[in-house]
Write a structure and sequence with these properties.
InterPro entries: Lipid/polyisoprenoid-bd_YceI (IPR007372), TTHA0802/YceI-like_sf (IPR036761). It comes from Cardiobacterium valvarum F0432. This is YceI-like domain protein. Keywords: Signal. Pfam families: YceI. The protein is α+β, with helices and mostly antiparallel strands and 200 residues long. The chain has one domain: Lipocalin (Beta Barrel), CATH 2.40.128.110. Helix content is 22%, strand content 49%. The protein contains four helices and 13 strands. Strands 1-4-5-7-8-9-10-13 form an eight-stranded antiparallel beta barrel. Strand 8 and strand 9 form a beta hairpin. Helix 2 runs antiparallel to helix 4.
Amino acid sequence: MKKNIISFMLITAAMSAYGGNMDAGLWTAQDSTITFLSSKINKQLNSITEQSSFTANKSQLDAEGNFTMNIDLSSVKTNIDLRDQRLKDWVFETGQFANAEISGKVEMSAINKLQEGEAISLQQPLLINIHGKKINFNANLSIQRNMNNKITVSTRTPVILDIKQMGMTEGVARMVEVMGLSSIVEQVPVSFDGIFTRNS
């Protein structure tokens, strides 16, 4: 009987110690959906908004809440090959700035408490390193636990990035000229949707 009590106490202690780190492990996402809207004004002053995307990206979130995302800017897709190339060459200048990197520190306790099917909203401070510029911004995120080892992360509202802040005005001006436009709106709404899988 005494042996059984001691065994139970040891198991309980082990579970208690593990309980604080039940969700330890690296969460990763590959090629999530990243879209952005670009609005252009033609010579007749009509506004046209189009959606484009980046198809190659990878993200990770560790047990301490360190988040990183790497976006391959050469994976931009507008459904027009020539425009894709102009964006790479003139706006993103992928020969010099191949990737955009996003990083932040996430409060993991709220995520770890989620049961399957539950969701939370977070106002998450993030930093983007793009085109040689570092820009702080906040993302309004929804996080849902699909199952024990899978969560869906998405933007509840688009993040607004500014062409001027990213140092891309010259490239965009060149796009305006060759496309015969009046202007391209400098504010760019960006949305994210991805499924993270935990690697134990």
